[in-house]
């Protein structure tokens, strides 16, 4: 994955995301193969780079009766970080006003923000968040998403794993998509969805519009009261073809596939046990960039 920005590590539950992250952090040992973080083999040399990594894997653990600040103070002392960092990271995640509250009174969103604050104590270059928005309400999801984007904009690398592809698409610069332990695609989000535009047409006489468009050699698929036209990315050309035939559209626009659509297409070719029904090249787009 490239250094800097948010990288989405995407796949359904059980696809191997958490297991991969645990292996990178030395919490699980692979049966075979090699893993590197910052170019260093792990877990063999994990102590060489662990100070540059902050991670939230599965449910973060804090002392329920301690305040948010006290929990971070204990952690800071354990990892030999100056106590002054505690107030800095609490402010970063918007918990300064609630820092004296006991952890047990925190909402799920506040608990997740405190966990992010804990990862920032070491001022890491790489942050790893495993399903950070699980169980959060829309406001909590928005806050976590904004925090990840802010950290990336500072030049840090943020790896976020999730099975909610639409959510990650709003914040990720690059992604890797996995299923059944297999890497299916990897690269910039824009590259993965590029070339997947379709023209959306709404016409009072959908049947007549379909006949005209099919005769032009374009594919037509009905969806939600509209027609999706494939084979011609220019909405003006589609509208002109209809008008020339005396069929007039009430709405013509462009719709683009999202990561979820890309993911569903890719996983449709993966059989049971990870075997592929047909060969499909993995798409990559990180050439020339430093990797984390």
Topology:
Blueprint: E1 5-10, H1 17-24, E2 35-37, E3 40-42, H2 46-49, E4 53-56, H3 68-78, H4 84-92, H5 108-120, E5 126-130, H6 138-153, E6 157-162, H7 165-169, E7 174-179, E8 182-188, H8 189-193, E9 197-202, H9 206-215, E10 219-223, E11 226-230, H10 235-244, E12 251-256, H11 259-267
Parallel strand pairs: 1-6, 1-7, 4-5, 5-6
Antiparallel strand pairs: 2-3, 7-8, 9-11, 9-12, 10-11
Helix pairs in contact: 3-4, 4-5, 5-6
- Could you name the CATH topology of the largest domain? Rossmann fold
End-to-end Cα distance? 6 Å
CATH A-level architecture of the largest domain:
3-Layer(aba) Sandwich
Q: What is the residue-averaged pLDDT?
A: 86
CATH superfamily of the largest domain: P-loop containing nucleotide triphosphate hydrolases
Structural class: alpha/beta
Oligomer: single chain
Count of the separate structural domains:
2
Strand order of the largest sheet: 4-5-6-1-7-8
What is the string of helix and strand elements? EHEEHEHHHEHEHEEHEHEEHEH
CATH hierarchy, class of the largest domain: Alpha Beta
Major sheet: 6 strands, mixed
Q: Return residue spans where pLDDT drops below 50 for at least 5 consecutive residues.
A: 272-290
Strand fraction equals 15-25%
